[in-house]
Specification:
With about 600 residues, the protein is α+β, with helices and mostly antiparallel strands. Helix content is about 20%, strand content about 30%. The strands form six sheets. Strands 18, 19, 20, 21, 22, 28, 30, 32, 33, 34 and 35 form an eleven-stranded mixed sheet that branches. The protein has an eight-stranded antiparallel sheet with strand order 12-11-17-8-9-16-13-14. A hairpin with a 2-residue loop joins strand 2 and strand 3 (about 70-75). About 40% of the residues are buried.
Amino acid sequence: MTKSIRNIAIIAHVDHGKTTLVDAMLRQSGIFRANQELVERVMDSNDLERERGITILAKNTEIEYQGTKINIVDTPGHSDFGGEVERALRMVDGVLVLVDASEGPLPQTRYVLQKALAAKLPPIMVLNKIDRPDARPAEVLDEIYDLFIDLDATEDQLDFPVIYTNAKLGVAHLKVGDDSTTLQPLFEQIVKSIPPPAGDPAAALQIQVTNLDYSDFLGRLAIARVFGGTLVRGTEVGIVKLDGKIQPTKITKLFTFRGLERDEAEEVTAGDIVAIAGVEGIQIGESITDLANPAPLEPLTIDEPTLTMVFTINTSPFAGREGQYVTSRDLRARLEKELLTNVSLRVEDTGTTDAFRVLGRGELQLAILIETMRREGYELMVGKPEIVVRTENGRRLEPLELLIVDCPENFIGIVMELLGNRRGEMKKMVNHNSGRVRMEFSIPSRGLIGLRSQLMTDTRGTALIHSLLEGWTEYAGDMAMRLTGALVSDRSGVSTAYAIWGIQERGEMFVGPAIEVYEGMILGENAREDDMNVNVTKEKKQTNMRSSSADEAIRLIPPRDMTLEKAIEFIADDEFVEVTPKSIRLRKKVLDAKKRPKRWQEIRASTESA
């Protein structure tokens, strides 16, 4: 048993302060030099993570506290990236469960806690943001106890320690208002409450790969936890593949973690977290074991994907203008590369060679993948997200979500009507007398597609929405599609202010003047249910004749800015989002207006059946 190591994961709902707390722990552990230039949320190293203020990839770091090495894994808080959390929990012996002292436990808190309790990991409860004016630590602690009981926690698990923190200032308290000015109470609690890793350094070698990284100098790095035995650099070991075959290989370099850096090591013993270089072809979930005495570990089990989208090559008239990678071969290679590091994603072939069905956990996860590919120089088109339906005992089942909506009291009616139309059932409603109400719904996953933008519009941007996969339910039949049509360009050319001025009364525009368009491109949302073909390239004819209305001032309403997520939520079954490094355009699958089916017939049919 190794006494000087502690392995912990920090788990919480999105935006409750995990990465900020890791920041404060790193700063107070003396990892950084006194004159070192530091950025905020140092663990969010990815550009997209910094822009959005969320953690997307699980990452690990290490700090030293009074001779004890504490390995910390920072996990994402969004349920779409749940696969990262499941892997992180396999590497650790205990968890810090972070809860906002005002918002209380939310869906992702429930999800990560459920996984931690199932893995029998001891929790330390951390109530963060106690400096908020609306903080209510006592009530939130009662809600946490209710959540533990609801998740069938054992008596030992219910006896958890509680720490009160302000991660931004780097302060932890054992009781609210005590005189602590540092995170020392938290460090002491970790050493005291989290058990040292089990595992015998003299036993048979057992290592499981839980993450992959890449180095330009060393190639693929496998980040793994040593469960038993000792790994020495230069030894011959066996990689147990996912199909059970053992592949012999030689370990060329070993690294342990120190802060944000990696230190070369000659050997690592049971209980530590290690980065192994020079192991080609290794995948997440595979184990490394002794060739002479193989003792493979159980592969990782990850929850099933619930959403699918079709990725295909860009076939628009503007294809190849902006992107570097445009062929189906490029697209296939990039998706296969993503599968190596993203275990909760799957890729299937479709009937054609230039389209792929990508299965994931939610719209955000797939949107992040598309945005990453776009920044790398890929051009592609994506279709409308659809749910994964499975058949059991002759019954069609679809995923069911627990949806929590937090909104001002005066929007309750609007929210209930909107979710009622999407087959949502209210389970619970809580009013904290703060002017806002929290409602819990059970709703099919299909009902969430395109919900966020509509709910934001209806509640004037004040609603907070969180969802979590609850299980599978019998297929609820067809659901009403988007009830508005699209304004579609009927020719190629450049949009003019004069033409837009005439069209903007018909609906909301997505494009401004002087934008290049093509036939079949979606220019805006029609106020009515059918599609309307419009000429956005029309110019004002100049004449010598004077008239009182000729020089009427053209006043344009600013167009709606379509981000990738908004575009994916907006499109209907017969539309694509065209994604290139510089542009996001919406288009019809069939560009030629004469060959395109009429949309109002599909709308009427879907509304009647719903």
